[in-house]
Design goal:
Blueprint lengths: L1 E6 L19 H13 L3 H4 L5 E5 L3 H13 L23 H8 L7 E6 L3 H10 L10 E6 L11 E7 L7
Parallel strand pairs: 1-3, 2-3
Antiparallel strand pairs: 1-4, 4-5
Helix pairs in contact: 1-3, 4-5
Amino acid sequence: MKLILLRHAKAQKASWDVPDRDRPLQERGHRQTIQLANNLPGPLAVDSKVPWTIWCSPALRTRQTLEGWRQNSLSKSAWDGLVEPQQPDWLYLAEAERLESERQLLDDAVNLLVIGHNNGLSDWADSLLGRPQPPLRTCQLLVLQSPSQKESSVRWHVELSWIADQKEPW
């Protein structure tokens, strides 16, 4: 199983006028989604042989991150045939334990893309990898690979890490 964790792109600052769930991306966040699409066309570019499930937090900033990634992708085939994203309420600001318990309900023969929030995503990555990582930055993507059945005692490992606004690709 491959697992893509994507923290949403840069959102407008919190204010009393706008509920947290309704905070949109700021201009920098929209640029980050373009960078993401230019560097990784979509989940099928990671693995096209195995079906994907997509979970996206119902918050506006996560939905805009996913939509910006899809719309700006130079390779539409990297999204062709994927199921529509699920937007479960539990995913909004979900903690690592909840994310993992929901993942364990999936078939191991399915890959998973999750667009969500910190601290839950970062804590989940730490737990899967068995060591602390720097917290995920805005529009940071991690591609994790689960251990094979032969390696059941081995932790997940990072196949790919990408951060928007960095000069170095991958």
